[in-house]
UniProtKB/TrEMBL annotation:
Active-site annotation: K196, K255
Protein's recorded name: Delta-aminolevulinic acid dehydratase
Taxonomy of the source species: Bacteria, Pseudomonadati, Bacteroidota, Flavobacteriia, Flavobacteriales
BP terms from Gene Ontology: protoporphyrinogen IX biosynthetic process
A GO molecular-function descriptor: zinc ion binding
Family listed: Belongs to the ALAD family.
Originating organism: Flavobacterium cyanobacteriorum
Known partners and oligomeric status: Homooctamer.
EC number: 4.2.1.24
Gene3D superfamilies associated with the record: Aldolase class I
């Protein structure tokens, strides 16, 4: 008998393939990242991210309603902070009437079921474009963590369902958990950016928020390598994820996605909490650029990417493709 195995039987038709498909992708796997700015009826396109806008609150709310109708159940939110509100303490980050706090309230009021996951990190608020407070030429870990706790509690007060620390300071998950609990927010979850690499794939995101590390009057690191991870490392990612679970993270994240799917699988195998993957701005930009030139089939490459992220072990995916992919999945 030759061949012994006719594996192609299971690939013969789309019906058979759909019966034996190992991974499933649905709109409720997605978290849609949104950029918010001051103003009304304002919509500014991000040049390096075609199809993505920085929107005022009113238009953000409109968009959130549309996302909901497509089956998307979660949003990450990021704000563009006016320069006059930036300093080296980040104090605008816990202003109860700040743009982020207003955004959380407005989204929860309009679509109460939407899971709102604001970003917790100081970079949009920092005059130096860093995720923390600068002291003696570096990011001061423990002082930054104390600031992040105030920020996260103010997000919880505004109605956030989860807080999503993306700063990579040590010990922040434990302090955030303690801070939320003692303020009475035991039910607000933590989705920790656990294995977040110092990646050049974040370029377009920093364009969107004008949050790249900047030249300064004092000595400031020119990149984020003293807190975000070295992309040559693997074991360290497992260590980071395990520490965050131990400190109380409800969901751990690996970021970026595509070039880091080995890490996604390792983390998935190591932890007993859901794993989220951030399919970041640069990954989005590359597909858009190649598709614009006719070099890649946009929709097919998008779906392949998202399925492969699921297959690698993601339970949730933060992706700028969420809306387009949901539309295709709903057809
Ligand atoms: C900031 C933050 C970044 C991203 C999410 N939160 C940028 C950075 O760390 O410099 C990147 C997201 C993306 O590229 O899509 N703490």
């Amino acid at each position: 008998m030759y061949p012994i195995h006719r594996n192609r039987r299971l690939r013969a038709t789309e019906s058979i393939r759909s019966l034996v498909r190992e991974s499933l992708l649905t709109p409720n796997d997605f978290i849609f990242p949104m950029f918010i700015a001051e103003g009304t009826n304002a919509e500014v396109p991000i040049p390096s991210m075609p199809g993505i806008y920085r929107r005022s609150l009113d238009l953000t709310v409109k968009e959130v309603k549309e996302l909901w109708s497509l089956g998307i159940r979660a949003v990450n939110i990021y704000v563009k902070v006016n320069d006059n509100l930036k300093d080296n303490t980040g104090k605008e980050a816990w202003n109860p009437n700040g743009l982020m706090q207003q955004a959380i309230k407005a989204i929860k009021d309009a679509v109460p079921g939407m899971v709102v996951m604001p970003d917790v990190a100081l970079d949009p608020y920092s005059i130096y474009g860093h995720d923390g407070i600068i002291k003696n030429g570096d990011i001061a870990n423990d002082e930054t963590v104390a600031a992040l706790v105030k920020m996260a509690v103010s997000h919880a007060e505004a109605g956030a369902d989860f807080v999503a620390p993306s700063d990579m300071m040590d010990g922040r998950v434990l302090r955030l958990r303690e801070g939320l609990d003692s303020a009475g927010y035991q039910n607000v979850g933590i989705m920790s950016y656990s294995a977040k690499y110092a990646s050049s794939f974040y370029g377009p995101f920093r364009d969107a928020l004008d949050s790249a590390p900047k030249d300064a009057d004092i000595e400031v690191p020119k990149d984020k390598k003293t807190y975000q991870m070295d992309y040559a490392n693997r074991i360290e990612a497992i260590k980071e994820a395990l520490h965050d679970v131990e400190e109380g993270a409800d969901i751990v994240m690996v970021k970026p996605g595509m070039a880091y799917l080995d890490i996604v699988r390792e983390v998935k195998n190591a932890v007993n909490v859901p794993v989220s993957v951030f399919n970041v701005s640069g990954e989005y930009a590359m597909v858009k650029a190649a598709a614009e030139r006719g070099w890649l089939d946009h929709d097919r490459v998008m779906m392949e990417q998202l399925y492969c992220i699921k297959r690698a072990g993601a339970d949730l995916i933060s992706t700028y493709f969420a809306k387009e992919a949901a539309i295709l999945l709903n057809q």
